[in-house]
Amino acid sequence: MKQIILFSIILFSLSISAQNQEIKKINIIGCWTKSMVPHENENLNVYSSCDTSSGTLKINFRKSGVYRLYSANLNSPQRCGNYIVKKTNKFGKYEYDREKQTIDIYTYGGKYEYTWQLHELDNGKIAFEIK
């Protein structure tokens, strides 16, 4: 009888622990390229790994807490049809909160600028939404 009760308690505790959803921790370290195809939600900026995609805007998150947002072709004229596209080359600091899935963006001097809400999409893509 004691074995049945003990077995029931173990099964109950395992079923309860299986119901707790684990927070997915997205690894943002590395190079990300902005997708050329806009997302159906216009507030989301979609990025793919630089290894799998090419685009004109890239962001590189370093382990040291520094990020770089830059145009992929900084050294060549940047035109998109009849439009001249502004080149970007910006450094700053970031803090990634894995629990909230947010990234706080700071200037290189440490002044707070804005917060991105991080979303994980299919095929290894991530999306940023300014909060």
Question: What can you tell me about this protein's structure?
Answer:
The protein is mainly beta. Helices cover 14% and strands 41% of the residues. It has one helix and ten strands, in the order αββββββββββ. The chain has one helix at residues 2-19; strands at 30-34, 45-49, 57-61, 66-71, 79-80, 83-84, 89-97, 102-107, 112-120, 126-130. An eight-stranded antiparallel β-barrel has the order 1-2-10-9-8-7-4-3. The longest helix has 18 residues, at 2-19. It is globular. The model is unreliable at 18-23 (pLDDT under 50).
Short key terms for the protein model shown above:
single chain, 131 residues, mainly beta, 8-stranded antiparallel β-barrel, two-stranded antiparallel sheet, 10 strands, globular
